[in-house]
Design a protein that fits this description.
homodimer; alpha+beta; eight-stranded antiparallel barrel; 16 strands
C-alpha cells in the first residue's frame, strides 16, 4: 500500500511526518495534537441524538439548541415519545441531501409537539449568550462566515442596524423539512447535507444540528431514482430502528463527544493550518471555505 | 407521495409549477426549457471516457483537453491500450474523493505514456483559444471564479502581469493522482470529488475532466475504513471492467452529451435563476457559489 499512499491526493500521513522536523509549519494534525482539555467543549447529552438504522449502523447528531430552541424541543419530544422509531430514509439525492421521516404520512404527532413553529432560520448576532464569532471567510453569500460556539454561522447587517446570523448548510448539517409555508416543519421530517454546501437554503429552512459521527451510513446509501431523489419503491426505503436522546440513556451508556472550541487560539491555529497546507502541497491556498474547515470533533471514552 | 414532495427541501417541481404564470421570475428549469441548440456545445467523442464497472454501471467522463493536454493524451493512450481494464476503485473517503487505479502497483505502463508530465495545474488566461470567461463569484480562494468554455475556472493576477487560471475542484471533477513531487502523475491513478469542493487542491494537482453522468455509482460506494479512506481488504475494492474512449467505439454506439455554453445569455440567465430561487424560498440568496451552479449537461439520443 505504500506507493498507493504516495499517490493519494490528501496525504495527511505524509504531512504529519514532514512536521516532525522543527522548522515545519504546523499541520492541522499538529494543532489537534497540541490542544489541551480547555480547547474542547462537550456535546451535552440532551443535545445528542442517537439514530440507529435497522442494519445496526448508528448516526450521532448534535442538536443546535441555542439557535433553534423550539424545533429542538420538538425533536427531543419526538425522540422521547419513540415517534421516530420505525420511520425510514425516503430520499437520497446525490450531491444534495438524505431525508428521513414517516413515509406513510399518517403517523399522528404526540400531543407534546408544537405545530405552529417559528421560523428559526435567523437569529440576533448581538445576543450576549451566544458567544464570540470567529471569522473564517468574507464574502460569498454573506459578508462574514465563520464559527460561533462550535457551529458554522454567517451574518449580515439587518435593516434595524443589528446583525442577523444564520447557521450554514455545510456537509453533515441537519435540518427540518417544511412545506411551502415557512413555520410548518414540526421535526417529523429531517434531512442532512451530503454534497457541496447548498447555501441557498440558508435563511430558508431551520437547521437544527449536525452529524458528529456515522454520516457514512447515510452518504453511501443508493441514490433514489424518483423526482428529487426519492426512492420510487417502498422496499428501497431504509428502515430506522430507533432515535434516542442520549440523556435518556443510562449514564454509562451515553456516548460522549467533544467539539473543538471555536473562540480559541487552537481553532485559529487550526484554520490557519487548513488554509496553508504543507508537505505534498506545492502552492498553499492561503484561505479556506467555511465549509472546508472540517471542525475537529472527537469521540471520548465512556467514564 | 404528494405530501412528501411538499416537505422536500428542494422543490424543483413546485418551482416549475409556479413559473407557469406570466409574472413569475424564471426558474433554472425555465431557462433550460427556453434554450436553443446554439446554447449547447457537444462533448467531443475523443474527450469522452466510458468507464464500466464490473457491476455493469457506467460512468461518463468529459476530458478537459484544452486545459491539461499532456495528461489527457496519456489518459487517451491508457484507454486505447486497454490499460485501465481490470483495475479497481481502491479508495472512497467521505466528503472528499473516490480514487481508482492499479492496486498491484506493478502493471507496466504502455510505451506511449509520457512519464515526465508537466504540472498542468495552471494556465495563461490570456490564451486566445480558450474562450470567454464568465464570472460567477468574486473572492473566496481566488479573486474571480466562474466558467470558461463550460468548465469551472478561477483566476488570479500573476507576477508578470498576466492572469493565471486554474480548473476548480467542484463536485464530480476528475483529477490525476500524483506522488510527492509535482509532475509525477501519469494518468494511471484517477480520482473524483464526492464532497464539498476541496479547493485547497486547486493549483496543486492536475484536474483533467469531470463526470457528466453516472457519479452515483461512485459516490454511493461504501467508504473505506483505512487511512485516507482506502479499502483495507483487497476484496472490498470495486473492479472496473473497461475504460473506453467514445471515439474508439462504432459511431452508432458513441454516447452523446451536450454541455450548456457558458459564454451565453442562457448561462447568465441560468446563474441568475440559481442565485434567486423562487416558489418555496422565502429569502433568495442573491448569489451562488461557483460549485453550486450545477451546470446543465444533457444526454442526447443517438443519431
Amino acid at each position: 500500500m505504500k506507493q498507493l499512499l504516495l499517490l493519494s491526493v490528501a496525504p495527511l500521513l505524509l504531512a504529519a511526518q514532514a512536521a516532525e522536523t522543527d522548522v515545519a509549519p504546523q499541520t492541522p494534525a499538529d494543532v489537534i495534537a497540541a490542544t489541551t482539555a480547555d480547547d474542547w467543549r462537550p456535546v451535552a447529552p440532551e443535545n445528542l441524538l442517537v439514530m440507529t438504522l435497522q442494519s445496526g449502523e448508528a448516526i450521532y447528531i448534535e442538536l443546535a439548541a441555542i439557535f433553534a430552541p423550539v424545533h429542538v424541543t420538538n425533536i427531543r419530544n419526538l425522540a422521547r415519545a419513540g415517534w421516530y422509531d420505525g420511520i425510514s430514509i425516503n430520499r437520497v439525492q446525490d450531491n444534495y441531501v438524505v431525508q428521513w421521516g414517516d413515509a406513510s404520512e399518517r403517523k399522528p404527532l404526540p400531543e407534546t409537539i408544537e405545530r405552529d413553529v417559528p421560523a428559526e432560520y435567523e437569529f440576533d448576532m448581538t445576543s450576549s449568550h451566544i458567544g464570540n464569532f470567529e471569522t473564517v471567510q468574507e464574502g460569498n453569500y454573506e459578508p462574514y462566515s465563520g464559527y460561533l460556539n462550535g457551529w458554522p454561522v454567517a451574518h449580515s447587517p439587518r435593516e434595524d442596524g443589528q446583525r442577523s446570523g444564520t447557521l450554514i448548510h455545510c456537509y453533515g448539517m441537519v435540518g427540518v423539512g417544511r412545506g411551502e409555508d415557512p413555520d410548518t416543519g414540526t421535526g417529523g421530517e429531517l434531512y442532512t447535507v451530503i454534497g457541496h454546501a447548498p447555501r441557498h437554503l440558508d435563511r430558508n429552512i431551520a437547521l437544527v444540528g449536525r452529524i458528529v459521527e456515522g454520516i457514512e451510513a447515510l452518504s453511501s446509501l443508493p441514490r433514489g431514482t424518483g423526482p428529487l431523489g426519492f426512492y420510487e419503491d417502498a422496499e428501497q426505503r431504509v428502515p430506522i430502528a430507533t432515535v434516542q436522546l442520549a440523556s435518556e440513556l443510562p449514564e454509562e451508556e451515553q456516548p460522549r463527544f467533544e467539539v473543538m472550541r471555536t473562540d480559541s487560539d487552537a481553532f485559529r491555529a487550526f484554520v490557519h493550518a487548513r488554509a496553508n497546507r504543507t508537505g505534498w502541497f506545492v502552492r498553499p491556498a492561503g484561505a479556506v471555505d467555511v465549509c472546508n474547515v472540517n471542525l475537529p470533533i472527537r469521540r471520548m471514552a465512556a467514564d
